[in-house]
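Hi V.,

Quick status before I head out on leave. The structure for the redesign project is tokenized and pasted below; the design run finished overnight.
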């Protein structure tokens, strides 16, 4: 008897989808990014859906992040469509998919090293942006400026974008920010002073070690959009997507995962000519990306319980302070709209895979999985399969906030994968 999708996914065993012993390798390790998806998990999900459906030629991720889902979709030769508001995420994903110019990269690497050595011997203008001295030691500013100038002088655009990606990790590593959080918090002064500066050596090592990580280029189409998913999906044709596979934000960035704060220092070092930025406002200040993301804008929030299309959410809000209710309502105002737009672009009869986590507010679990399931079913989707998995290895700080009289609140340690099918009449 042929298994349905739920039976197929469960047949691997209760702990299979945890992927606890998996380490990032290949193209997925060329740059760090918060809350990265597990590549083998995404690969297996995509593989099983493709094999079962047999009618999938494109895959869409409206919150592509560091590109894990799109890279795995690329390995099956699918046409790719991705959206992310974060220019650093867009750059990392672009580099992972396009790779380097194999005809010129080794020559480019040699010339890059020569330029670095030249600028080390010769005084040069240092890069500057507002508050740079707060976030970087003087010697680090000097060495990052050498690397930056050496990258700008690279003529091959693909190779240059690759170099920026290699540099992005080192900007964060050698900054004065704490590594225990994605937010921008200054390290203790003694830790800043004793930090050993090997940034140029680390950069050269990254460039040389990562160059062979890329997959063989494929001829499938690849469309990456840097922008707000709410706006970008309006320009997409209805019923045009064969398969949606994504992990949407679990809450507004400012209080959940601050992707923008994690990225902004790197973005301020990268030449903006090599970034896809829909608006310079995104890098105008250190919180602009997060405040422009889902739920971050100042919207007319849902004011009445009758206006909230989820009984689960209405009941949860009763246990949360009025002030924090506003942020939650603001997030779900955007979240429900973006889910509706995803449903609009998905072809009837086709599947949408959502990987979701339940964060805590005032130590109340915001049951995003139940809220999403309730909303999607009301909007014409049927639940096809569901997986619960541990995320003990996912790159999220162990403690995300502190509540008065309660203390530190643990971050989420599990996720739910919901797989929906759009009805033929929707």
């Amino acid at each position: 008897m042929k298994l349905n999708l739920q039976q197929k996914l469960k047949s691997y065993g209760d702990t299979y989808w945890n992927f606890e012993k998996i380490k990032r390798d290949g193209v997925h390790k060329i740059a760090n990014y918060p809350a990265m998806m597990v590549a083998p998990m995404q690969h297996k999900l995509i593989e099983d859906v493709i094999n079962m459906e047999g009618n999938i030629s494109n895959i869409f991720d409206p919150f592509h992040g560091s590109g894990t889902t799109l890279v795995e979709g690329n390995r099956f030769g699918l046409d790719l469509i991705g959206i992310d508001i974060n220019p650093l995420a867009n750059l990392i994903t672009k580099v992972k998919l396009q790779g380097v110019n194999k005809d010129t990269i080794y020559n480019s690497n040699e010339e890059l090293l020569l330029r670095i050595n030249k600028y080390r011997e010769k005084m040069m203008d240092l890069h500057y942006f507002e508050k740079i001295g707060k976030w970087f030691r003087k010697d680090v500013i000097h060495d990052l400026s050498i690397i930056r100038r050496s990258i700008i002088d690279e003529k091959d655009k693909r190779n240059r974008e690759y170099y920026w990606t290699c540099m992005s990790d080192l900007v964060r590593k050698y900054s004065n920010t704490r590594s225990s959080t994605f937010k921008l918090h200054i390290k203790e002064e003694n830790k800043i002073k004793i930090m050993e500066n090997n940034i140029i050596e680390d950069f050269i090592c990254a460039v040389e070690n990562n160059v062979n990580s890329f997959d063989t280029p494929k001829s499938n189409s690849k469309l990456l959009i840097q922008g707000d998913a709410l706006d970008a999906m309006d320009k997409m044709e209805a019923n045009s997507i064969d398969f949606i596979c994504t992990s949407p934000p679990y809450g507004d960035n400012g209080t959940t995962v601050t992707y923008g704060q994690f990225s902004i220092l790197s973005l301020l070092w990268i030449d903006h000519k090599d970034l896809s930025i829909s608006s310079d406002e995104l890098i105008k200040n250190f919180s602009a990306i997060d405040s422009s993301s889902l739920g971050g804008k100042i919207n007319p929030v849902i004011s009445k319980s009758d206006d909230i299309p989820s009984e689960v959410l209405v009941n949860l809000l009763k246990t949360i302070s009025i002030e924090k209710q506003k942020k939650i309502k603001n997030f779900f105002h955007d979240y429900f709209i973006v889910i509706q737009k995803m449903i609009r672009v998905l072809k009837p009869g086709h599947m949408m895979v959502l990987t979701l986590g339940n964060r805590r507010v005032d130590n109340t679990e915001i049951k995003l999985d139940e809220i999403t399931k309730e909303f999607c079913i009301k909007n014409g989707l049927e639940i096809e399969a569901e997986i619960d998995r541990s995320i003990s290895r996912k790159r999220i700080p162990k403690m995300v906030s502190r509540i008065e009289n309660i203390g530190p609140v643990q971050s989420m340690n599990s996720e739910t994968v919901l797989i929906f099918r759009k009805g033929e009449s929707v």
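Above is the designed sequence. Residues 50 and 217 are 21 Å apart (CA to CA).

G. will cover questions while I'm gone.

Best,
W.
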